[in-house]
């Protein structure tokens, strides 16, 4: 795909970002969305829901043998989550940087976890960790019809590259 206006390759990379139940409880949804908009990424999917055990056990299938697995599922079902799909250049890797290290002690100030979290079991946000992982997670959480492929008609930080 190439952009009709610039002739440059269209950026189709997408990632799944979720505000976890503690982020919703703490009214951090707006601040988290703002960071991704401000960076220039494009929101193509958004919904709030109470996550099911089925979806979560698929989402965290790689962690089934971990000692924290059961408490992780309890945490993730303790209240609603806000799940989003963001699109843009290198969005998977850049989002991981914006979200910060899994261990809040190592999460840099300026990252979501570095600014809002002090414990690994209440770390506010999820971000896909690879392009393939993102594709799987997007399919798991969203139906294709609920993702919006919209054209941007204003100048953004990405419209010149
Ligand atoms: N987690 C936890 N205790 C741990 C490690 C992870 O409760 O010791 C939870 C935490 O919510 C984390 C999630 O499990 O975000 C998934 O872990 P992963 O290692 O995939 O980290 P992430 O990709 O979320 O940074």
From TrEMBL:
Keyword Nucleotide-binding in annotation:
yes
Q: Which UniProt keywords apply?
A: ATP-binding, Cell cycle, Cell projection, Cytoplasm, Kinase, Magnesium, Metal-binding, Nucleotide metabolism, Nucleotide-binding, Nucleus, Transferase
The places in or outside the cell where this protein is found are: Cell projection, Lamellipodium; Cell projection, Ruffle; Cytoplasm; Mitochondrion intermembrane space
Requisite cofactors? Mg(2+)
Q: Name one GO biological process term.
A: UTP biosynthetic process
Query: Major location, coarse class?
Result: other
- EC number(s) on file: 2.7.4.6
Protein name (record): Nucleoside diphosphate kinase
Q: What is the lineage of its organism?
A: Eukaryota, Metazoa, Chordata, Craniata, Vertebrata
Q: Which stretch of the full sequence is covered here?
A: 42 to 202 of 202
């Amino acid at each position: 795909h190439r952009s009709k206006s610039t002739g440059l390759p269209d950026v189709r990379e997408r990632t799944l970002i979720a505000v976890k139940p503690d982020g919703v409880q703490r009214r951090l949804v707006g601040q988290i969305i703002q960071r991704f908009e401000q960076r220039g990424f494009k929101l193509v999917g958004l919904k709030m829901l109470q996550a099911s055990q089925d979806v979560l056990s698929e989402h965290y299938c790689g962690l089934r043998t971990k000692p924290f697995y059961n408490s992780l599922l309890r945490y993730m079902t303790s209240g609603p989550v806000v799940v989003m799909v963001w699109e843009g250049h290198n969005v998977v890797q850049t989002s991981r940087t914006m979200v910060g290290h899994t261990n809040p002690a190592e999460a840099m100030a300026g990252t979501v976890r570095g600014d809002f979290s002090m414990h690994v079991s209440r770390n506010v946000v999820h971000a896909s960790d690879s392009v393939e992982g993102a594709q799987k997670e997007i399919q798991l959480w969203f139906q294709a019809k609920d993702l919006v492929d919209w054209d941007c008609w204003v100048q953004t930080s990405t419209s010149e590259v």
